[in-house]
Protein: Glyoxalase-like domain-containing protein
Amino acid sequence: MPFALSSVIIDAADIEPEGAFWHQLLGGSIHRTPTHHFIQAPGLPVIVVQSAPTQIAPNWPEGTSQQMHLDFAVEDLADADRTATAAGAVRLRPTTDVTAKTGSRVYASPAGHPFCLRSA
Structure:
């Protein structure tokens, strides 16, 4: 029986900035309820930000462990870096050349969830 990934659920103590971040980064549409934000971006499963008042942000690569992380393939890494940081992402590794169009970079969302951007 084949499986299809329908959604990815991300916990956040405060869903407003986390939902806004993923919506700004990925585009598409967002539906908000008091406890969940549903982001539907083209070509991706639904990203669901759910309220988790006791969520503790991962501290990658040490400290509180990450539960999972997302990797995104992008055409232009420098452009994707600008988009991610403008949306509120924080670089978790120093980047020697932010103009490089290829490679990979590690970031954290406003709730502290690590994710990677990798050149396609």
